[in-house]
User: Which sequence fits this backbone?
């Protein structure tokens, strides 16, 4: 069709309540290219993708598709122009088959009666074209996230999508699955599809994209061919200043520091098998491994969120049999859960309400909350952790991801714990907040708290922890310390090919 | 320059529209309440008089009391369909105790109210320990309690002789009927619980995000069960008030009243999804509902239409809430 430009944005602006998500964005996306949008969380990259796909309507500006001005009112409108979006969470009908999900809404047939044979033929052709292999009759809920995404991609192709927006598609994938997704994305581009790829994994973006646009605070910093960019250049563009992603200097705990958490033979099949480890006061113990290797399950079993079937947990030398989290909390164990929105925060309530929730006994007299004491103690903590908010009474929904995470840190620091379990403490937070959280974790260790750090970002575990355990298939398969701690060693242990029973 | 002004106008317009939606969502019931109040005051000479206001409060009290208790259940993420049956049951227990056992008036009434509390505790256990969906659990409870009420009365009316039994229902202080004072007291106590106590915080936490609450050490099941117990107690109190007004108890007396209660709560703007809401909303919602009926009577319009209007307003209130939520998300 007309020229190289597939989509042009001119002066696009968008606000959500008091937050300016995008201001005056100009951008040209070329046909048949992979165009990456990068930036910190809250930089506006997802919003931009959603405006393209008709999920959000811009407040101002023009959207020009195939040389024609458009105003999408819904994703359906965008789809008519061949534009669709695949988000982080697949949106399939869980109990229907792959086949039904792919052709949902565009079934072959007459008068509403689905022609099974024609549909099967179409599916076979689709598989041949894209190289995506999926069992057509399997119910969608039984697929892994990576395969569910493939279903979404097939669905997009079936709907004649000419431009697919992918919003953080690899956040729930293993490295191997990601690589295969990249191959597929390249093949789609070569077949004529335009891909807009939203991500904050810079290495991934540089390996995949043709063009990279950096966003900061809702504005375009620059658009350049990926070949001209480097991770360092991208980071400094995202931050607006030159910084190095460095970790604080490690301060190992004294040799005679007492053991604050001891776990022996902890099991909860099928996720956890005979896990044993110790953490000393002031020590940061890293727990690495692939997603699904059982790291979070170990944390949950220690904390009493799930009940282990076997094993002994001791806190400061005394046995802890936590049947519910309340028991663990009373003994000085704190856990920052994996997903702060579904497991951590009360999104509609205020920062203070969230901070004091586990400690209301301490600010309550005869059942009545002493709001002044709460505000005094909690407010001070919130300030000292540098939570950026209009007031401690502001609702948590209004905060950015990094500040929300800090609220959860404040929750568990309201009363100093003995053991602090941090499960993915920096997931979905921006670079600036990441550094602050690293400092916080170090601060905890300095105070003599034993920290169990779980993270999918291996460099984070290696950069922060004094010692690293690697998990695979529910077992601890390696313990790395000192010079042995390297990304290579972690990956080797995490990916080892021999079967673990 | 012209385009600049236009852009500014556009922006202001948008801001106003957004403001509208937010305000209408949060304070829609207040706006509608005030509008209806003013309309009725203008169109009827009788409406805004001490006498009518007093009667209006008196008539609203039983539903208002139950709506206050129900609000706690709603905020904790539950639902209580049993209040109609439970209130009738409580009335029967009170009347039977008074007539049959020689227990004093207040003793009988308290025993009746405690019967409601018992039903509420049973609801709470069914929902938490029994893991039955709140809708089904309280529906089952309503059926059971109705059945028990029929059995113990053999399906007959229980009449109480003498005027003394109506002391609670019809007695007055300073010209205002006792049920109004009871309603105010119940609302104040529940409002206090919700706003200022640890329990109140836990109620919001349990309804807003049960998993997060559990991981923060909150005994979510205990909190939820307690809200059902409070709702049961409120139904019991409302039940003895209703029976004391007419001196007769009947097993199917308050059939359908649970829907008025739920309507009042939802009209007030308490979210069906839990985690949000306030006692004043239920109070205002109950008043609003009663005002529609009162208005119809005063203006002499056909009373059949008031059900249509109530239904339409309820649907509109929920729809508005959902739209505003979408806009905000």
Assistant:
């Amino acid at each position: 069709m007309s020229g190289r430009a597939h989509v042009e944005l001119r002066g696009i602006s968008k606000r959500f309540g008091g937050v300016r998500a995008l201001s005056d964005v100009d951008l040209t996306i070329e046909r048949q290219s992979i165009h990456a949008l990068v930036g910190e969380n809250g930089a506006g990259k997802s919003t931009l993708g959603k405006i393209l796909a008709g999920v959000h309507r811009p407040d101002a500006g023009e959207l020009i598709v195939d040389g024609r001005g458009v105003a999408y009112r819904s994703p359906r409108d965008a789809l008519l122009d061949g534009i669709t979006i695949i988000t982080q969470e697949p949106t399939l009908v869980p109990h229907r088959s792959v086949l039904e999900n792919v052709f949902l809404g565009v079934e072959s047939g007459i008068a509403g009666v689905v022609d099974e044979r024609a549909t099967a033929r179409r599916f076979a052709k689709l598989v041949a074209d894209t190289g995506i292999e999926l069992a057509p009759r399997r119910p969608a809920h039984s697929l892994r996230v990576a395969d569910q995404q493939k279903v979404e991609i097939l669905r997009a192709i079936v709907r004649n999508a000419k431009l697919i927006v992918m919003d953080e598609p690899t956040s729930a994938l293993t490295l191997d699955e990601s690589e295969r997704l990249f191959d597929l994305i390249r093949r789609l581009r070569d077949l004529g599809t335009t891909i807009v790829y939203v991500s904050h994994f810079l290495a991934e973006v540089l390996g995949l994209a043709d063009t990279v646009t950096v966003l900061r605070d809702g504005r375009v910093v620059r658009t350049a061919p990926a070949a001209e960019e480097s991770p360092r250049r991208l980071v400094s563009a995202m931050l607006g200043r030159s910084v190095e992603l460095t970790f604080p200097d490690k301060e190992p705990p004294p040799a005679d520091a007492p053991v604050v958490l001891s776990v022996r033979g902890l099991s909860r099949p099928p996720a956890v098998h005979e896990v044993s480890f110790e953490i000393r006061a002031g020590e940061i113990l890293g727990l690495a491994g692939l997603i699904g290797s059982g790291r979070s399950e170990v944390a949950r079993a220690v904390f009493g969120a799930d009940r282990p079937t076997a094993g002994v947990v001791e806190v400061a030398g005394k046995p802890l049999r936590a049947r519910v989290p309340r028991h663990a909390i009373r003994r000085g164990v704190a856990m920052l859960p994996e997903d702060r929105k579904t497991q951590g925060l009360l999104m509609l309530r205020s920062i203070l309400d969230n901070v004091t929730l586990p400690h209301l006994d301490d600010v309550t007299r005869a059942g009545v909350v002493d709001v002044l004491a709460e505000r005094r103690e909690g407010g001070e903590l919130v300030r000292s952790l540098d939570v950026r908010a209009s007031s401690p009474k502001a609702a948590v929904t209004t905060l950015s991801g990094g500040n929300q995470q800090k609220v959860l840190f404040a929750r568990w620091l309201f009363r100093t714990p003995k053991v602090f379990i941090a499960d993915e403490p920096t997931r979905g937070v921006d670079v600036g907040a990441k550094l602050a959280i690293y400092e916080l974790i170090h601060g905890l260790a300095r105070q003599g708290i034993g920290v169990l750090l779980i993270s999918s970002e291996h460099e984070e575990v290696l950069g922060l922890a004094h010692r690293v355990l690697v998990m695979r298939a529910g077992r601890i398969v390696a313990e790395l310390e000192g010079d042995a701690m390297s990304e290579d060693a972690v990956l080797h242990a995490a990916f080892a090919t021999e079967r673990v029973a | 320059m012209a385009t600049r002004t236009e852009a500014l106008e556009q922006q202001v317009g948008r801001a106003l529209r957004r403001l509208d939606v937010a305000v209408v969502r949060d304070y829609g019931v207040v706006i509608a309440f005030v509008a209806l109040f003013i309309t009725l005051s203008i169109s009827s000479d009788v409406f805004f008089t001490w006498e009518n206001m007093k009667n209006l409060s008196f008539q609203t009290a039983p539903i208002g009391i139950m709506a206050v208790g129900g609000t706690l259940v709603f905020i904790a993420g539950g639902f209580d369909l049993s209040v109609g049956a439970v209130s009738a049951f409580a009335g029967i227990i009170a009347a039977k105790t008074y007539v049959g056992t020689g227990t004093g008036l207040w003793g009988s009434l308290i025993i009746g109210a405690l019967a409601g509390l018992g039903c509420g505790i049973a609801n709470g256990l069914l929902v938490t320990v029994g893991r039955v969906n709140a809708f089904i659990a309280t529906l089952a409870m309503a059926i059971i309690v109705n059945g028990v009420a029929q059995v113990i009365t053999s399906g007959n009316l229980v009449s109480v002789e003498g005027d003394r039994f109506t002391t609670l229902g019809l007695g007055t202080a300073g010209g205002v009927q006792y049920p109004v004072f009871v309603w105010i007291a119940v609302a104040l106590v529940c409002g206090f619980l919700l706003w200022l106590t640890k329990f109140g915080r836990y109620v919001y936490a349990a309804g807003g995000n049960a998993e997060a609450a559990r991981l923060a050490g909150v005994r979510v099941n205990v909190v939820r069960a307690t809200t059902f117990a409070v709702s049961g107690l409120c139904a019991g109190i409302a039940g003895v008030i209703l029976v004391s007004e007419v001196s007769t108890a009947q097993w199917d007396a308050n059939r359908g009243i649970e829907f008025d209660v739920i309507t009042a709560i939802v009209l007030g703007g308490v979210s069906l999804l839990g985690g949000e809401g306030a006692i004043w909303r239920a109070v205002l919602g109950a008043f609003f509902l009663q005002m529609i009926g009162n208005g119809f009577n005063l203006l002499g319009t056909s009373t059949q239409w008031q059900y249509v209007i109530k239904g339409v307003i309820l649907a509109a209130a929920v729809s508005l809430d959902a739209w505003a939520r979408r806009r905000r998300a």
Q: What stands out?
A: The first strand of chain A starts at residue 5 and ends at 16. Chain A touches chain B at residues 17, 59-60, 303, 305, 324-326, 329-330, 335, 337, 342-349, 353, 356-358, 360-361, 364, 367-369, 371, 411 (CB under 8 Å).
